[in-house]
Write a structure and sequence with these properties.
8 helices, mainly alpha, single chain, about 130 residues
Length: about 130
């Protein structure tokens, strides 16, 4: 499963964010529907955290320049000192994605079109 998720969430696949969200949605629906009888809530919570961090790294890498990072982070209403600190971060994308939790929140990622495995699992398994 994680190998397939790595393939879908690959930054260099040449597909846009909308297509990536659609492919991820299809995969999540198919996988959860196939394994819905199993008790896997904790596993899905851990995988959701990993997926969201991976999505944040994708957006961090898309905002290539410091100026773009500054503009995009300030769109979300963060204080100016936080925007400057985050935009000038020289850490790698995986480490910077951990800092983006305050800006690209779970609600914001859901607004971008990505669904979570736990929410779909709760929707399918509630009879």
């Amino acid at each position: 499963m994680k190998d397939r998720l790595r393939f879908i969430l690959k930054r260099s696949n040449g597909k846009g964010n909308e297509v990536r969200a659609l492919l991820l949605k299809r995969f999540i629906k198919g996988w959860v529907n196939y394994f819905k009888l199993a008790n896997m809530k904790e596993l899905l919570i851990q995988i959701d955290r990993w997926i969201r961090r991976k999505i944040r790294t994708i957006y961090w890498k898309q905002w290539k320049k410091v100026r773009t990072k500054h503009r995009m982070i300030s769109q979300y209403g963060a204080p100016k000192w936080v925007v400057l600190e985050m935009a000038n971060c020289r850490k790698g994308p995986w480490r910077a994605a951990a800092m983006l939790n305050s800006v690209l929140t779970n609600k914001e990622i859901a607004r971008l079109g990505y669904i979570t495995m736990t929410s779909y699992y709760k929707q399918v398994c509630e009879n």
